[in-house]
Backbone:
């Protein structure tokens, strides 16, 4: 068995919803360290990967090792044994890795919304006539302070 690898060859990546993803853990052995050998349409040894998609989580599949750099479109499911415990562990790992990433994206969007609302309130304060400013300025300033506190809280949570 090969040692743990952290190069791109052992951490496949893909794009989902415009977000670049890669395997959350390095493979314990390289994608070409398996037997019996399966050859792709190019005549090269096909790489053995683990699926991280929601539909096929934990399933192993064979794909042309050079598919991204001009190889062939070979793809097939690996027929080796799938351990139930390992599959459930992968589901938990998948959720543990991707849930915080989705939450971070949602918090960033909330922060952008809070900043936009803050800017709108600042513009409204500037546009108030001088007669309205004396009483209304306190109300708007309170709104600005609350918006700033919310935005700061979201920013601190994002870390």
Residues:
């Amino acid at each position: 068995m090969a040692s743990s690898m952290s190069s791109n060859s052992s951490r496949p990546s893909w794009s989902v919803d415009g977000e670049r993803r890669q395997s959350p853990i390095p493979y314990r052995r390289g994608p070409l360290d398996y037997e019996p050998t399966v050859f792709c349409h190019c005549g090269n040894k096909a790489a053995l990967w683990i699926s991280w998609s929601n539909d096929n989580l934990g399933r192993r599949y064979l794909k042309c090792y050079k598919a991204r750099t001009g190889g062939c479109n070979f793809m097939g499911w690996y027929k080796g044994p799938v351990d139930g415990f390992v599959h459930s562990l992968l589901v938990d790992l998948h959720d543990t890795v991707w849930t915080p990433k989705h939450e971070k994206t949602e918090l960033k969007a909330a922060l952008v919304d809070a900043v936009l609302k803050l800017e709108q309130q600042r513009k409204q304060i500037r546009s108030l006539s001088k007669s309205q400013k004396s009483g209304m300025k306190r109300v708007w300033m309170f709104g600005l302070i609350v918006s700033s506190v919310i935005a700061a809280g979201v920013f601190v949570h994002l870390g």
User: Anything to note?
Assistant: The mean pLDDT is 76. The radius of gyration is 26 Å. The longest helix spans residues 84-127. The chain has two domains: 13-82, 103-158.
